[in-house]
Design brief:
Blueprint: H1 11-26, H2 31-38, H3 42-49, H4 57-66, H5 70-79, H6 89-98, E1 103-108, H7 119-127, H8 135-149, H9 151-154, E2 159-165, H10 167-170, H11 176-190, E3 195-200, E4 214-218, E5 224-229, E6 234-237, H12 240-256, H13 260-272
Parallel strand pairs: 1-2, 2-3
Antiparallel strand pairs: 1-4, 4-5, 5-6
Helix pairs in contact: 1-6, 2-3, 4-5, 7-8, 11-13
């Protein structure tokens, strides 16, 4: 990895670097100690972890062996530069991890999560995007969203848990007809054995999700990741301490939300009121 060929930082490079840093810190290694194990300088390790250098195959292989996660690091390395049309660059790493997850937890307070959206609901969001999208751009994003949604059907052994703020359903995004279709879709999905949908009622007031959405997943190697997203950025969280805090908050949210049966009854009442 020569300095002259180093590319400009990208979200994928930053995400790969964050993963390596998280695994290194979890192993209790300093950058210098880790550098000796992988036979790269501590400065090169820092550049990779900070997203300033694209790792090569030699680095990825050595890092995976040194961290005891050869398959995970290799899989991430192979995907960091892979582009998926219709998905924001900062979201693509998380979307890749979703395809491998054995469990996926999502709390949302802004919009209904993409995995649960109907075409009409998604199109409503895309059509009101600023700056405006072209018709082709809307179709590309819709196709990408529908591709992600196959996870719910094609991974029956993956456990999906969703906690939704009630106000997401009361807003009636797209109008009554779009909302009615969405509610029916949520009821259909909640009937699947591997999908749990819970509604956090408006009456709950202050709760552990007031700071924003929470996304958590566990890989087949029992490695946990989290994801945080803003207006124009996304962050893959690998730090065990930070993930532990989010797991604690999500567990409390599940406890405070209506259970799956009560949530289904609420969805039916909301549907009947339209």
């Amino acid at each position: 990895m020569t300095k002259a060929s180093d590319p400009e930082p990208t979200d994928s490079m930053c995400m790969f670097g964050a993963m390596v840093q998280g695994l290194r810190e979890q192993a209790g290694l300093s950058r210098e100690e880790f550098g000796r194990l992988v036979r790269f300088s501590k400065h090169t390790v820092a550049s990779v972890e900070l997203g300033r250098r694209m790792p090569d195959m030699e680095f990825a292989t050595a890092a995976g062996e040194a961290l005891g996660q050869p398959e995970l690091v290799q899989r991430v390395f192979e995907k960091v530069s892979r582009k998926r049309p219709g998905l924001a660059m900062w979201f693509q790493r998380w979307a890749d991890l979703e395809t491998e997850a054995i469990c996926l937890y999502t709390y949302e307070c802004r919009v209904v999560p993409g995995l649960l959206q109907t075409d009409a609901y998604a199109c409503t969001l895309f059509e009101h995007r600023l700056p405006p999208l072209s018709d082709e751009g809307i179709q590309t994003k819709l196709e990408a969203r529908k591709e992600r949604q196959k996870l719910l059907l094609e991974r029956p052994h993956t456990s999906f848990s969703f906690v939704l703020d009630e106000h997401l359903l009361l807003r009636q995004t797209g109008g009554p007809e779009v909302t009615r279709e969405l509610l029916e879709h949520l009821l259909d999905l909640s009937a699947r054995r591997n999908v749990e949908i819970q509604v956090l009622p408006m009456s709950m007031g202050v709760h552990p999700g007031v700071n924003g959405p929470i996304r958590l997943l566990e890989t087949p190697e029992n490695q946990w990741f989290a994801y945080a997203e803003g207006q124009r950025t996304g962050e893959l969280v690998t730090d065990p301490e930070a993930i532990s805090v989010l797991q604690m908050r999500y567990a409390r949210l599940r406890a405070q939300a209506l259970d799956s049966i009560e949530s289904a009854e609420l969805l039916k009442r909301l549907r009947g009121s339209l």
